## 1
Amino acid sequence: MYKILFNLFIVSFMFMAGCTKRDVSELQELKLPATADVFIDDFTSDLAYSAFGGSDVRAFNVDVKETYNNTTRSIRIDVPDANSPNGSYAGGVLYSTTGRDLSSFNALTFYIKANQATNIGQIGFGNDLGENKFVVTLSNLPATSAWKKVIIPIPDPSKLTAEKGLLYIAAGPINDRGFTFWIDEVKFENLGTLLPVESSIMNGTNTATTTFIGVTSTISGLTSTFNLPTGVNETVNLSSAYFQFKSSNAAVASVNAAGIVNSLSAGTSVISATVGGVTAKGSLTINCVGAYTPAPRPTRNPSNVISIFSDAYVNVPVSYYNGYWQPWQTTLSNDFTVNGDNVLNYTIFNFVGIEFSAPTVNASSMTHFHLNAYIPGPIAPGRQLRIIVVDFGADGAFGGGDDTRHSTTFTAPTLVTRNWITIEIPFSSMPGLTSRRNLGQIILEGGDGSVMYVDNIYFYR
Amino acid sequence: MQKNKIKYMQQHLGNICLFALTVLAFTSCEKDAVQTLPQREWELTWSDEFNGAAGTAPDNSKWNYDLGRGPGNDGWGNDELQTYTNSTDNVRLDGTGNLLIVASGGSGSYTSGRIKTQGKFSYGYGRYEARILTPYGPGIWPAFWMLGDNINTVPWPQCGEIDILEIRGQEPHIAHGSVHGPGYSGGNAITKSYSLDNDRLDSKFRVYAIEWGPDYIDYFVDDYLFQRITPADVNGKGEWVFNKDFFILLNVAVGGSYVGFPTSGTIFPQTMTVDYVRVYKEK
């Protein structure tokens, strides 16, 4: 009987198909299944797990003892201690081997508990071990020893018609100690109790940056905020593919789908964005001042140079070009690359430290210090630029009572606006610097809170 | 413009008459629940559509303000945290036909608004409705409610209180409708909740209403009847005091004994947006 019915079905289907005019243009792409469940009591049929490189591959386990609401199985993640020989963190991806259509859902939800009050570094979806196009991340998720429900919203579900990355986790030790957490009842849901609040670029600020033709800038600070069913807001980080970027003046600046902005000509352009047709908060204003005048290209023989920052030479290892020394430093870095030339761009500059202490630099055979600086703003009367070269002494480390330093002050007319300033200081003019065998820092001081570009920092003879 | 508005109201009245017959409503039940409501015909008797220039105060021929932290300086008897002001920072029109009541502040110091028709308009039996987009967040307590017009001579709770809408901001899917009176006030109020299934009240503007007659007060969210309170409900508790004129209040409180206190997760400012308040008498 069943078989007859089945055959009848086939026949009727063929009949219907035969009646229907088919047009190649009407063929639709293969629709992937809209499976909601990820891990309820076991792996769903299309599910696989892969650990991140460098992570402890034994961190991921299926647990039968500790489960949500007395179900049969949960996911257990054992975060290793710091410096564990098995790996320094727990991380990996639960992914669909075939892909899913998640466009009818608006959130990934699951329950979580930990063996202690802790924060889970990153947890989200969209990481597919490949393109990672539509990644959404909830950072520093607090977990306690009681199960609680977590909701990770999908900012624009219409994007997720073929998603493989269903759940990803990256969790490191807290105060160097590992811990254990459990995740259960992982699934995608369409929650009417989740209220979109806003999405943001540049962390919701209206940011301005001065550029030159050929400079690339990146739209960063991509977030989306939702109000949870408890009335509390939750903000997740997004990948750029959720956003549609727009340049208000395409002749001045172009922006691509990844949020990379290219400055094309002098002028002003405001880069804004939408998510799912809704305007995102924040913008990046590109003030392109025109063609970039590079710093004078160094011509000294590389064998006579120890370079800290220059595209003309191979630089020694540098720990940082901006130490963000707190609490008094205001200086931020907005370094840029123009036509292949890397430039240090210090904004809100009051002072900044550059450190190259691992290892320190022995400049005993060198005779001079060199630096190029460019100040786009006006030079107020009395404006100084102080350059401090620091030697860390025999211990090769900051402090210890053996550090020596010398500060050299420059003022107008050496300091000029809108022209590259070349500063060359002979070590013989740095009496405070009693050794240059263990140079570790260069400190620039005297900023007025405006912008200064720096290039070609090196010692030479 | 004025003509269009009248036409719109007539349409609205028509809708209400139609609606009073039989309503199909969807609830969380497996089957669709059928609500059969008594047929009532309404005629508009008072309203504020909140038309006016952006940033201006609401019509002072209709509304005045409660200010400060209450007559006892005790958070209006509920340990509420906000200080009510008459500033347009807290109470203003948005220029597109809405009233905004804005609760703002943080770290235990908050300002907000509470307006009322006391001394300007009070009324008895009828239909009272407001179309509201509600605020949210732990400790946020928006309300559309009424007090007995004799409150200055007959103190609360004897004067009576009808709460058409109250929301605890940490439960943005639940509306509460209540009456307070002698013997059934504060924590012993007669109250019922209306909870949305997989939706939130603040996902869109909704119409919160009561229909009030000599022996009933019916509570509605978007014309879904979720509670009827009758004199029988106060039997053995106290006296039915809903047989005289009441005035209307709109406010957003922050914190207090009813809602609990704001948390670090409560986002400020929070705004209650009111499209209109309308009062109808039965034809």
## 2
Amino acid sequence: MTLALIVLRSLRQHLFSTLITAFSIALAGGLLMSVWVVKVQSQATFTQVNAGFDAVLGARGSKLQLVLNAIFHLEASPGNLAFADYEFIKQHPAVKLAVPIAVGDNLRGYRIVGTMPEFFRDVEYAPGKTFSLRAGQLFNPTAKEAVLGSFAAEKLGLKVGDIFHPFHGLVYDEKNQHAETYTVTGILASSNTPVDKVIWIPLHGLQTMSGHDPKAATDVSAVLIQLRSPTAGFMLDMMYNKQGNRLTFAYPVGAIMADLFSKISWFDQVLTLVAYLVALVSAIGVLVAIYNSMAARRRDIAILRALGAGRMMLFGAVVLEATMIGALGMVAAFAVYGVTVAVVAAVIRAQTGILLEAWSYNPVMLWAPAGMIVLCGACGLLPAWKAYRTDVAENLAPIS
Amino acid sequence: MTPSSPLLRIAGLRKSFVSPEGERKHIVNVPEFSLEAGQQLALRGESGSGKTTFLHLIAGILAADAGTVQLAGCDMTALGEHARDRLRAENIGYIFQTFNLLQGYSCLENVLLGMAFGAGMDRAHSKAMLERVGLGHRLRHFPRQLSTGQQQRVAVARALANHPKLVLADEPTGNLDHKNAHESLALIRETCRENGAALLLVSHDPGVLGTFKEVRDFAELNQVLQEAAP
């Protein structure tokens, strides 16, 4: 009770310093948690999201580029493959499902991808989850109709019944408008996958769009594949990648994305190190704030000692005060974390369609506050030692 | 403590400091001194005569070089610092010339802290003490919001809050005007009497000393001053 009174009054007495120091702790703690959660969640999400497919077959080139293009709709297509290649792998006994896609057009920056209706009917994009329509119906494979991902529909302001002109290329240029018009027949429910940011049209429509090369009118950009067993993947990998030299079989999708993250892990490490350093600097701020106020506190300490307070109690009071500043800062750190992750998640959602879950539990939400509070308490040890050593008689001036 | 033994008994008490020049300077050398329970005694002494050091030694704030300070049967000089703190918290009230109120605490909290390290905080008793010194309407005020006379009254309430057996008052009226000094002194003496506490007051002010029946010259007690006298 007495200790609590001493600590609370000291925090109030040095209110400005307390708030500024706690604010710096909040920024540092919030940053540390944000970096950690974004790192862990984005890595987990990007290596787990495969839109329900085990592998991607595409033109000869980088597996990563193929996966980024066909699954995440991020990269340029490495090239086309003949429709016969699609038909061949579709008939392969090791393949459960093969869905072709064609890319090459956009609407105000949102990709238009051609595919077949089974993409929406037969694919579980996550265990137990299939794509569903929020409004309208699927496109007719032979008509100039489109189904929009939820995010694309929201950003483009399109609804069922609206008509639009596609634009050529993956980058929006208003001069590259195609003559055709497409009618929106359906809007997909949100799946928090890259599918949400895509405009889906029939495969044939994209292949035969005016201005596209008539010689490639039957080509596809990639084939998304579900396998009957994991061993089938290694067999096809051998067949296409090692024995063949015309096509690339990207398998497994998660491992290819994990490889990407391992290649850029140094960046994560640097970012995490910076976050740790910021946390350390802000904790040292607690030390500096309390230490600098020790001259002003000496008289109070001497008075409390004269009233009978023991040295250890005052030592404990200073350590507890530093700990309280750390705790106060880490409570506010969750607000900083919420804002930071919300902004980062919005950017990732806009770029990839993937939604990070800011408030889903991550161990960092326990160990970062606990570690920061302990670190702040440790930073209180030096000023606490100074309080412990305060000479009572010397600080109870004047002497008569 | 036997029924006949004094509340405070001092024998052969010595204290010296090392000056910045490295020279050992003797401040206090009191061969014998005692104070009975409930007794009110004033010590006359000039500034710099070692009166505050003497009171600090009695309170256990300073450790003596030699000698004994027995308070309520306990030898303060034989105790470790923690035990001295405890003994002070439970038995001694201290009134300072500059009041030494804690500026970040309200009047009530200042008084509560006067008993916090002894028997524990008693809010009702603290309020009663502040009402007794005429500050029942200033419980939540901070020291800076009070006049110097009112601050001294808070200091008196704080010194008596822990039911001390002994109140030490170091030039308690030194910072007050004549009227406030008179009132404050009367208050200290009355409240000590009401609480059964002995009072040892040091001052150089003849106006203060004149109100006491028992006044002793600190120079007579402190051998250091006698040795230094021409």
